[in-house]
Amino acid sequence: MNAIFRVVLIVLAFLIFISAWGFYVSIRPPKIHSSITPRDLRMEYENVSFKTADGLTLRGWHIPAKKPNDQTVILLHGYPADKGNILPPMAFLHDDFNLLLFDFRYLGASEGSYSTAGVKEVEDLLAAIQFLKTRAITEVGVWGFSMGGAVALMAIDKAPEIRAVVAESSYASLAEMALQLFRVPLINYPIAYLISLWAKLILGIDLRDASPAERIRNSAIPILITHSSADDVIPFSQAKSLQQALANNPRAEFWFSEEFAHGQLDANYQSRVRNFFKGNL
Q1: Is the peptide bond before 29 cis (omega within 30 degrees of 0)?
Q2: Could you say which DSSP state residue 221 is in?
Q3: Are 94 and 66 spatial neighbours (Cβ–Cβ below 8 Å)?
Q4: Helix (H) or strand (E) run with residue 85 in it
Q5: CA distance 56 to 157
Q6: How much is the CA Rg of the chain, to the nearest whole Å?
Q7: For site-directed labelling of 58, which of 15, 71, 108, 134 has its Cα 20 to 30 A away?
Q8: Are 125 and 157 spatial neighbours (Cβ–Cβ below 8 Å)?
Q9: How many CA atoms lie within 13 A of 121 on its CB side?
């Protein structure tokens, strides 16, 4: 009996340690600081900053469109990247739209003690929208990659200013993603449970609240979901869940591929995204 008890204690201690380590590295990943700026791409821009509802200062760039107009697209980076990471591949939108890029809390040049992989980052996007409203911009499109795509989808019901969303490689449920953090049979469920428990006890957040699929079930705005079945970071099943959630949205579009890794783009990507925003903003 004592031997069995010791084994149980060892297994329990192992699960607690692994889950605590997984939780810590999830909320405080190594920061990525891209060296590229809009100046490197010969774009005029303005360094901007704005505060979130919980008092964090977020820093970003406002880039006027090459062809002056009031149509604006907010670009949201992934986890754990920064705004410079997405600037080069999305610079093509600068021809037709004003762009706002910013670093999510904790990441890049923004303030914050930790990341929540999308939960509180919704508030970051809402703060960005409020910032644009001070400049008389009341309608925006939002493009987001990975975590950024999830944030864009989860903000739709909170921000009527959002008129169209492109979500690339987004997750549908953060709680489900926690299950896939450790791809080891049997222990992934208790570890995912413990990670969710640490999030609730330490940060006061419920990972189940980070569910783009649930948030968009009643959405009627234009949404373009892009994903690849070859994505080894965000499983393709997450995209299928988003597709099911949007079954009643006649303005939802889906563009799936079978050959591109996480963050790789199809040759027709630029024209597809540009035309989507031009047709819906």
Answers
A1: no
A2: S
A3: yes
A4: helix 83-90
A5: 23
A6: 20
A7: 71
A8: no
A9: 34
Give the list of residues 6+ apart from residue 78 with CB closer than 8 angstroms, or none: 85, 86, 145, 146, 147, 148, 169, 263
**What SS3 state is found at 151?**
helix
Q: Dig out the tokens for 141 from the structure.
A: 């499109």
Contact in structure between 169 and 263 (CB atoms under 8 Å): yes
Nearest to 86 by CA among 233, 239, 263: 263
- Tens digits of pLDDT across the chain (281 residues): 577 778 778 878 888 888 899 899 999 999 989 999 999 999 999 999 999 999 999 999 999 999 888 899 999 999 999 999 999 999 999 999 999 999 999 999 999 999 999 999 999 999 999 999 999 999 999 999 999 999 999 999 999 999 999 999 999 999 988 887 666 667 788 888 899 999 999 999 999 899 999 999 999 999 999 999 999 999 999 999 999 999 999 999 999 998 888 888 887 999 999 999 999 99
3-state secondary structure of 272: helix
Other CB atoms within 10 Å distance of the CB of residue 2: 6
Taking the C-alpha atoms of residue 252 and residue 257, their distance in angstroms, rounded to an integer, is 17
Torsions phi, psi for 104 (to 5 deg): -65, 160
pTM over 0.85: yes
**Cα atoms in the 13 Å half-sphere on the side-chain side of 189:** 2
Residue written as tokens 């697209």?
73
Question: In the structure encoding, which two tokens stand for residue 38, read together?
Answer: 């809009």
In order of their start, the domains of the chain are 31-173+210-280 (3.40.50.1820)
